[in-house]
Amino acid sequence: MLKKISKSEDEWMDELTPEQFRIMRLKKTEPPFSGEYLGVDEEGIYRCAACGNKLFSSKNKYDSGTGWPSFYEAFNDGHIEIGIYSPHGTEVLCGQCESHLGHVFEDGPKPAGKRYCINSTALKLDQSVREYAKKGSREDYYGTPA
Q1: In a domain, 1, yes or no
Q2: How confident is the model over 90-109, as pLDDT tens digits?
Q3: I need a labelling partner for 88 at 20 to 30 A (CA). Which of 30, 47, 69, 143 fits?
Q4: Model-level pTM?
Q5: Within a 10 A sphere around the Cβ of 36, how many other Cβ atoms?
């Protein structure tokens, strides 16, 4: 289980860029086709830009044609949280700092059938763990706990 990070909005404002704060704390959305990670095919783990939590593996990234980086599966259960449903989709939050990441839809590719549309501004690609990213999830890498 992840240890929760709790900070005041003033603390987040001091730590995040204005655009990160707008998207991650005020729950806004970056314009489609504008994010830095949209067309990136590099291997690695996508982490929360606010707290560094592992969110998604590059192995599970795909081009959904929607204008945002899309993933069909989260890195691990508990690393993300599902928030409130809205006409824009169901909100996706970081499981550690509860920052807004984007939205999830039930129309993604098999086997998971999910489409996590995530704001690039909410992500940071960690390429120091490329081998880990190839495996997908912690269980894939280390094996299922006994």
Answers
A1: no
A2: 999 999 999 999 999 999 99
A3: 47
A4: 0.86
A5: 12
Helix or strand run (H / E) with residue 131: helix 130-135
Q: What is the DSSP string of 90-122?
A: EEEEETTT--EEEEEES---TTT--EEEE-GGG
Q: Which domain holds residue 30?
A: 10-136
Q: What is the CATH number of the domain that holds 51?
A: 2.170.150.20
Q: Is residue 81 part of a domain?
A: yes
Number of domains making up the chain: 1
SS3 (DSSP) at 57: strand
Active site residues: 117
Mean predicted confidence (pLDDT) in 66-79: 93
Residues of the chain with pLDDT > 70, as a percent, come to 88
